[in-house]
Amino acid sequence: MSEDEPDIETVAGLLEDQTVREILTETSREPMSAHTLKDHCDASGPTIYRRLERLRDADFVVEQTRPDPDGGHHRQVYAPNLDRITIDLGDGNLSIQITRRERIVDRFTRLIEEM
Questions:
Q1: Whose CA is closest to 60, among 87, 30, 33, 99?
Q2: Which of 12, 22, 55, 61 is the S-S candidate for 41 at Cβ 3.0 to 4.6 Å?
Q3: Is the pLDDT of residue 103 over 90?
Q4: Are 58 and 81 in contact (CB under 8 A)?
Q5: Contact 94, 8 (CB under 8 A)
Q6: What is the pLDDT of residues 18-76, one digit of tens each?
Q7: How far is 83 from 28, CA to CA, in rounded Å?
Q8: What is the DSSP letter of 99?
Q9: Per-residue pLDDT, 100
């Protein structure tokens, strides 16, 4: 686990919350706005925003700007930034490993650097 990664208590605290799990599950299908998440999760708007803030702080979700083709405005959508969370028990120690999704900008940079 790197210095920037949340500790096991933070991760456990997030994952024990049903709304957090619903947000991660719903956004794993497709990025969603907070308003859409409110409709998909059994939670109020303020609860959704608080959970999204906690997930952003832990770098478990990323916020993306999407153009709205109907209104000409932009809207924020959220997508998970996780592939896997692994908790290992060994040698009298619990350890956590968080595997993140490779962001498209990082993938593009790696592609350019490999040319």
A1: 99
A2: 22
A3: no
A4: no
A5: yes
A6: 999 999 999 999 999 999 999 999 899 999 999 999 999 999 999 988 877 776 778 89
A7: 10
A8: E
A9: 87
Nearest to 54 by CA among 13, 88, 89, 96: 13
Give the pTM: 0.78
Three-state SS letters, 47-87? HHHHHHHHHHHCCCEEEEEEECCCCCCEEEEEEECCCEEEE
* 3-state secondary structure (DSSP) of residue 22: helix
CB 35 within 8 Å of CB 77: no
Quickly tell me which residue has 């709205």 as its tokens: 68
Using DSSP, state whether 16 is helix, strand or coil. coil
